[in-house]
Specification:
Elements: E1 9-15, H1 21-30, E2 35-37, H2 38-48, H3 50-60, E3 65-66, E4 69-70, H4 72-79, H5 83-105, E5 112-116, E6 131-136, H6 139-150, H7 154-162, H8 168-171, E7 176-179, H9 186-196
Parallel strand pairs: 1-5, 1-6, 2-5, 6-7
Antiparallel strand pairs: 3-4
Helix pairs in contact: 2-5, 6-7
């Protein structure tokens, strides 16, 4: 197989809701690779980062925080129905998330680190990575997974899927695509991708 890449490689993982990107990330983590979960980081930073808090209060008013914690229902009620406000929040939060990621990377000792994000392609963050993996799945399977996971109706699941951009756009941008259709083994697909990350030199 050859030796590992001699430099630290940053790999982005993404996929639409119900695609199974989190499942893939769990497999990667179980193999001992560090995985940075950007959604969890964003939640933490929106409560802790002074700059984010200042900008969110400036945008939405004092009500966006209650007892120094983000008022998630209040914020969600606004950005779910207003794509412009949602974009503004993304522009506030995601640069800080990426800075936090780079700080996290500096403390990792693995030659390959992974970054999971639902918005990897949507906000052009993919351009900052050495490679990207897009996890896809058939529509009906996505709906089935969302209904089961979130105990919601089919209509609600479809609405969540439709609120995201068409992943066909992202297939052209991704370095690798894993089809998580439960017919093919995504572990084998992952192994093939990992092998490609090894250098040919000894």
């Amino acid at each position: 197989m050859g030796g590992f890449l001699t430099i630290q490689m940053k790999v982005g993982i993404s996929g639409g809701i119900g695609s199974g990107k989190s499942y893939l990330s769990e497999i990667i983590a179980s193999k001992g690779f560090p995985v940075y979960y950007s959604d969890l980081a964003a939640r933490r930073l929106m409560n802790e980062d002074p700059l984010i808090k200042e900008q969110l209060v400036s945008l939405f008013g004092e009500e966006v925080y209650v007892n120094d914690q983000l008022n998630r229902p209040f914020l969600a009620s606004i950005i779910f129905n207003d794509s412009e406000k949602r974009e503004q929040v993304n522009h506030i939060v995601h640069p800080r998330v990426h800075q936090d990621f780079l700080k996290w990377v500096s403390h990792q000792h693995s030659k390959i680190v992974f970054y999971e994000s639902a918005l990897l392609f949507e906000n052009k963050a993919y351009e900052l990575f050495d490679a990207t993996i897009l996890v896809t799945a058939p529509l009906e399977l996505k709906i089935e997974r969302i209904v089961k996971r979130d105990s919601c109706t089919r209509e609600q699941a479809v609405a969540r899927i439709n609120s995201q951009r068409n992943e066909e756009e992202y297939k052209e941008l991704a370095t690798y695509i894993i089809e998580n259709d439960e017919r093919s083994d995504i572990r084998i697909a992952l192994e093939n991708i990992l092998k490609s990350f090894y250098s040919t030199s000894s």
